[in-house]
Amino acid sequence: MSSEHLRSQLFALLDEMNSALDQQRWRRMPGLRQQVMALFKEYEAQETSVQQLQSTRKTLHDGFSSIIARRESRATFLQEQMAEHQTKKEGMLAYSMVNLFTEQE
User: Fold this and answer.
1) Which of 47, 34, 49 has the alpha carbon at shortest distance from 6?
2) Mean pLDDT to the nearest integer, 76-103
3) Average pLDDT, rounded, for the chain
4) Distance (Å, rounded) from C-alpha 101 to C-alpha 89?
5) Which residue among 7, 76, 87, 98 sits deepest, i.e. has the most Cβ atoms within 10 Å of its Cβ?
6) Residues 57 and 43 sit within 8 Å (Cβ to Cβ)
7) Phi, psi of 71 (to 5 degrees)
8) CA separation for the pair 10, 60 (Å, rounded)
């Protein structure tokens, strides 16, 4: 394959990673990352232009940074939601225990 074709495939995989993140398909991410890394290794071996290689590296680095930041913010949001859910559950448990004790008296 030509280096241009490999480059376009790399960017397509990066777009696919972004869409997987948008659709909350977390389990696809490691496989897609492995595909990107394998394809980049092949691209790196074929690319003769140092400038083109650096440009591709920067684009991939920026894309991965964006994905990591989005993933971390989503994880933080889910942790906050879980903490709120646990608080509400614990509140409901305490309320039901009070009702149980008042019924027994």
Assistant:
1) 47
2) 71
3) 86
4) 18
5) 7
6) no
7) -65, -40
8) 8
Q: How far is Cα 5 from Cα 52, in angstroms, rounded to an integer? A: 13
Whether residue 99 is predicted with pLDDT greater than 80 in this model: the reply is no
3-state secondary structure the chain: CCHHHHHHHHHHHHHHHHHHHHCCCHHHHHHHHHHHHHHHHHHHHHCCCHHHHHHHHHHHHHHHHHHHHHHHHHHHHHHHHHHHHHHHHHHHHHHHHHHHHHHHC
Interatomic CA distance for residues 43 and 51, integer angstroms: 13
Both structure tokens of 20: 């997987």
Token pair 């280096």: residue: 3
Residue 66 has pLDDT above 90, yes or no: yes
Quickly state the pLDDT bin for 41 (edges 50, 70, 90).
very high
